[in-house]
Amino acid sequence: MPRPRADFFAGRAVSLAEWTVRKRERRTPAGHPTLPRRALVRFHPVETRTPEEIRKLVDEGAQLIDVRTGHEWEAGRIPGASHIELSELSGRTEEIDRGRPAVFYCRGDNRSDMAAAAFAAAGYEASVLAGGVQAWIEAGLPLEPEGGYVAESGEAASILEARERGVQS
Fold first, then answer.
1. Is 55 a catalytic residue?
2. Nearest to 127 by CA among 65, 62, 14, 47
3. What is the pLDDT at residue 74?
4. In the chain, N or C terminus with fewer CB closer than 10 Å?
């Protein structure tokens, strides 16, 4: 099944980030399983919040979880955030308190949408920083460490950034 174009979602109440592709079993006419095909399955809905709303939630006791990669975290992060990479999240769920709201963020908001949807489906009060750490910076809010910046995601980007910073040092 081909993936729907972005304009398929135009005018609908959900965003592309709320959808994922999951494999579904198919059978031959004789009833034997075939290779899986892909089908659209809707994520559990999650709230997206502005940087100002997130700041207030954290002041009131919400947990802030950064799901970006290690080099992104080291480059710059929101003060008070915990770091659990998206790829490690399922094995570290005990680190997230079910009794407190959990706010997930990444660079944009694709990875955090997946994380928040999974936790919301499991009964957590989960939300996402709309626009990710990029929106946080654009709102004029601070990063740590001092001089922190929003790194590009991906391994290749981390290598290129390290080379560039090494040349400039």
1. no
2. 47
3. 94
4. C
